[in-house]
Write a structure and sequence with these properties.
Keywords: Membrane, Transmembrane, Transmembrane helix. The protein is of the alpha+beta class. Helices cover 21% and strands 24% of the residues. The protein has 8 helices and 19 strands. α3 packs antiparallel against α5. It is elongated and about 65 Å long. It starts with 11 loop residues before the first helix and ends with a helix.
Length: 467
């Protein structure tokens, strides 16, 4: 009789069989009804996917990217950020484990993973991808929301938090896609994630393309991973991960001609980073303000205005405010005719929204660092001149600029046509020590009195000067 304590008899195939059996017992899965289909322009350079996708499935209209959706909720204890988290297949409970060091862990020594994870963001950063792949210069930048998820899966009635392309130097195509959605409730997110996994398990894409569930419990218990391949010998990896009200989907086409850039172990580690980031920077996060910006360096969060200080009777009707998962699309521009469009250097973007409301962003603070106070003053002068002279934005819509009651404050009203206008209140502020230039942009969601709006803007500018 086999020894019940002989753990060597339990194989990944056995584990997968049990998980699938448990998954099949799931009752009560409410497959979310899709809203009307909205066609979103698919990203370019994805020729390898054409044999996988037959008739791209449109995403729900509610899934169109709306900037970066803020995440809020009940605060919970966070796991040790240096240790991978564990999870079960259909629940969102996470605990912490630490991998046992072995010779196979040597590639981990290429990076300080705790420091990389301290870089705010709900999706794995370019630096984390670079350290995992062993390739310099990998970037993860905001991209189009994909309409062609593998196996024709769809996220259901969700709002996109962030959609990014993983780009590798010297590679002509986008090789990685990662996107996070948020749902009204935990159950809707769980049900949608399970439906997406079921699609992957029963993929109907044409043969000889293939997709296979794979197992690795080394960093996360029962993480959901798939390996796929096509008839041109291209292959890749897929994971669908949910935490609370959020789902993160990662698809990576990093292999050609049978040569793999990612091993199962490394993709399991990427999946673990997905879990850690959902737990640290997702709706239950207590990590403080989220600062978006280049992977290299962003100013400390303490140098930004506290997100709660943006709350006011004028701008929010007294409602509380908070920061959310900001996005960085490679440019630092925050307003029409912005003279600061350089995506390099030390700068950061703080996105502010109404507390507890996903799609309610109304304010941005951009903070750029300078090594010379004279350079800071020059940048402030250039920005002010560009804003004052602005007559049309990039899209060709006319802009009318009104100077505010204090130097460096502006109201920028864009004529969107058909009698519709959009006003942004802008302030420029050099820090008292001359080391930083803050640009504040507030876009009230309701009509406000301009005099009252400028008074609030000047209050915020004073806070920026003192940081």
């Amino acid at each position: 009789m086999p020894d019940p304590n002989d753990h060597e008899m339990w194989t990944p195939e056995d584990d997968d069989l049990v998980r699938r059996a448990l998954f099949s017992l799931r009752e009560d899965v409410d497959h979310l009804p899709l809203a009307p289909v909205e066609t979103v322009k698919s990203r370019g350079g994805r020729r390898r996917r054409s044999t996988w996708i037959t008739g791209a499935a449109g995403l729900a209209a509610a899934a169109v990217v709306v900037g970066a959706v803020a995440l809020s909720g009940v605060l919970t204890a966070k796991p040790d950020v240096t240790a991978p988290a564990t999870r079960s297949h259909v629940t969102t409970t996470a605990t912490t484990t630490r991998p046992t060091p072995t010779s196979a862990d040597d590639w981990h020594a290429t990076a300080d993973w705790a420091t990389l994870l301290a870089k705010p963001g709900i999706l794995p950063t370019g630096a984390e991808w670079a350290a995992t792949l062993g390739v310099d210069g990998v970037t993860a930048v905001e991209g189009m929301l994909p309409t062609d998820l593998l196996c024709l899966m769809t996220p259901g009635a969700a709002t996109a938090v962030s959609s990014q392309d993983v780009v590798i130097p010297g590679k002509p195509d986008t090789l990685g896609v990662q996107v996070t959605w948020i749902y009204p409730t935990d159950k809707q997110a769980q049900d949608a994630a399970n439906a997406m996994r079921e699609k992957a398990d029963n993929c109907t894409t044409p043969k000889p393309e293939a997709i296979t569930s794979v197992s690795s419990d080394r960093y996360s218990e029962h993480s959901m991973l798939w390996r796929f391949s096509d008839s041109d010998r291209n292959s890749g990896w897929l994971t669908v991960t949910d935490r609370g009200r959020q789902i993160t989907y990662v698809e990576f086409w990093g292999q050609t001609d049978g040569t793999s850039m990612l091993t199962l172990d490394k993709f399991a580690w990427i999946t673990n980073r997905v879990e850690n980031r959902l737990e640290r920077y997702g709706e239950s996060s207590s990590a403080g303000p989220v600062i978006a910006g280049p992977d290299t360096l962003t100013p400390a969060a303490s140098l930004f205005i506290d997100p709660s200080d943006f709350a006011s009777t004028v701008f929010t009707g007294g409602a509380k405010t908070e920061s959310g998962a900001g996005e960085f699309d490679g440019s630092s521009a925050v307003v029409p005719c912005d003279s600061d469009t350089n995506g390099q250097g030390e700068f950061g973007l703080l996105k502010v929204k109404l507390a507890g409301k996903d799609a309610s962003y109304f304010a941005t603070e951009r903070l750029r660092a300078f090594t010379d106070p004279a350079a800071t003053d020059t940048a402030a002068t250039d920005l002010g001149a560009a804003l004052a002279a602005c007559t049309k934005d990039v899209g060709g819509n006319p802009v009318h600029v009104t100077a505010g009651p204090a130097e460096g404050t502006y109201a920028m009203t864009t004529d969107l046509g058909a009698g519709t206008t959009f006003t942004q209140f802008v302030a420029i502020q050099v820090s008292t020590d001359g080391s930083h230039l803050a640009t504040l942009v507030v876009s009230p969601q309701n009509k406000v009195d301009q005099a009252e709006a400028f008074a609030e803007l000047i209050r915020l500018r004073g806070l920026a000067a003192d940081r």
